[in-house]
Predict the structure.
Amino acid sequence: MYNLFILAGQTVSPLELFAVITGVAGVWLTVRRNILCFPIGIINVLCYAYIFFQSEIRLYSDALLQLFFCIMLVYGWISWRTNRQDDEVIIEKTTTGEWIFFSALVAVITLTAGWLLYRFTEASYPFLDTGLSVISVFAQWMTAKRRIENWLLWMVVNVVYIPLYWIKGLPFTAILYAFFFVIAVNGWLSWQQSYRNQQR
């Protein structure tokens, strides 16, 4: 990829910079429950899908994850348009059954797909990458379904992604995920207040 400038000894490409900008905009709009978060998010994930497939990055699970995100963003766009009350998106909580299903799915897919990537590809950190990807999938589904706990999962994956992206030579993306963590905390607090208001 063509490099734009160097940050802390690591190069930053124009595409990575653009992906960071759209990523910040998309998450900020999600916190505010603004439906424009979905088209912005679609642009963002397509940029990152291309970046993660590059030979110098090779985070294949992350690349495929971005394509799944694209599908979930379209689904979320539809869901948010149809589940509104007084022009506000209705927030819900995750059920115990959904948590059990999610936990089992994370374990099975991480071990299976992680091993396949380790055995048959040159993927970097195959088990870690796969585990983070699966958790992110569920978090994105929760966002699309307007589940308040999506922010808790985003906090977890963001903390782990920060050093991973830095190690892989994506410094702006690492900084972006540090910012995402802060936004996720804000999103959790903001959606908690909105949920309480809904119950009145």
User: Anything to note?
Assistant: The helical segments are 14-31, 37-52, 60-82, 96-120, 126-144, 150-167, 171-198. The beta strands are 5-7, 10-12, 84-85, 88-89. The chain has seven helices and four strands.
